[in-house]
Amino acid sequence: MTSVTAEERSKRMIHTAGCIIIGDEVLGGKTVDTNSAYLAKFCFKLGMNLKRVEVIGDDEGEIVEAARRMSANYDFVITSGGIGPTHDDITYQSIARAFGLKLVEHQKALERMKKLSKPHPSQPNFTYDVPSPALEAKKRMIRLPVDTSRDDKDQVLFVDESLWVPIAVVNGNIHILPGVPRLFEKLLEGLKPGLIPRLTDPEGKGVYRILFSTPMAESAVATYLTELAEKVESKGVKVGSYPRWGKKRNSVTLVGRDKSYMEELVPQIEENVQGKRVEREDEMDQSDDADEG
User: Fold this and answer.
1) Residue 172: left (phi > 0), alpha (psi -120 to 50), or beta?
2) Which of 16, 18, 156, 217 is the most exposed place for a label (fewest CB within 10 A)?
3) Backbone torsion region of residue 50, taken as left when φ is above 0, otherwise alpha when ψ lies between -120 and 50, otherwise beta
4) In angstroms, what is the C-alpha Rg of the chain?
5) pTM of full prediction above 0.85
6) Which residues are CB-neighbours of 278 under 8 A, at least 6 positions away?
7) 3-class SS of residue 109
8) Within 10 Å of residue 289's Cβ, how many Cβ atoms?
9) Are 214 and 252 in contact (CB under 8 A)?
């Protein structure tokens, strides 16, 4: 088996994606992860198959193992969290260790930080010119895992002119993003222009989702949906069933690339789930409410 180089990973076509959410605060329930959901929608729209999302703590061994495995298994990998200024922000150092890299103080990132980052109100006298604990903490955020044998421009990306925050790209396919949702979303969208040339279906036009609304309980349609899933699997079509708690209707979905085949299935699915094809899962809720009146 031939090993794939970081350079090859950074250029090859993207079919699959993986996501690592990093943070004790997520596992402890203090912070609710919204970044993986945003990434899932991002991948679906671009025709990327998001295969795995993992949530792990601020543990170097866990991060090392997950980063190596995800990089080997998927074409495009995103990490979220653990790149702030405090002692428990260890994502950079852990991913550096995973691939035998050193942390390098990135001068362009530092210059952008100086230009675009405003001092916190609690630090009115902060300066970049005098060594201080606050300066050292800030510099933790621009000490990046860099392979000095490769071109820097492929490893440290600045995708938004309004932000100083870099995206470090390690082993050609691991993209390290912050956990703050506003920053995560903005930086992820900034990656899009660079990803599109490497996608087979950059607008997600080859992936179709058909949605059905049914008044039947999941248990009532379970046997039929199981048989349907087995029938369509060879065509690359997936069947989903989703309860809507507190509502009178549940949802059934078809997701796949063979649009004509999926369209042929619509009448029989509507008949077997006693439902109707809809554009939104709440589309028929109002008619149910009217029936009650």
Assistant:
1) left
2) 217
3) beta
4) 23
5) no
6) 211, 212, 213, 284
7) helix
8) 10
9) yes
Element (H, E) at 10: helix 6-11
Positions of the chain with pLDDT lower than 70, given as ranges = 1-3, 204, 287-293
Beta bridge partners of 102: 146
- Going by DSSP bridges, is the β-strand pair 276-278/208-214 parallel, antiparallel, or unpaired? antiparallel
Per the structure block, which two tokens stand in for 268?
Answer: 């029989």
**Number of Cβ atoms within 10 Å of the Cβ of 89:** 20
CB 170 within 8 A of CB 150: no
- Which 8-state DSSP code applies to residue 196? G
* pLDDT tens profile 195-208: 999 988 777 677 88
How many other CB atoms are found less than 10 A from the CB of residue 65?
Answer: 14
Question: Which structure tokens are listed for 116?
Answer: 């675009």
How would you classify residue 210: left for phi > 0, otherwise alpha for psi between -120 and 50, otherwise beta? beta
| 58, 154 Cβ separation under 8 angstroms | no
**210 vs 27, 111, 265, 279, 281, CA distance in Å?**
34, 49, 10, 8, 11
Q: Strand pairing of 16-22 and 76-80?
A: parallel
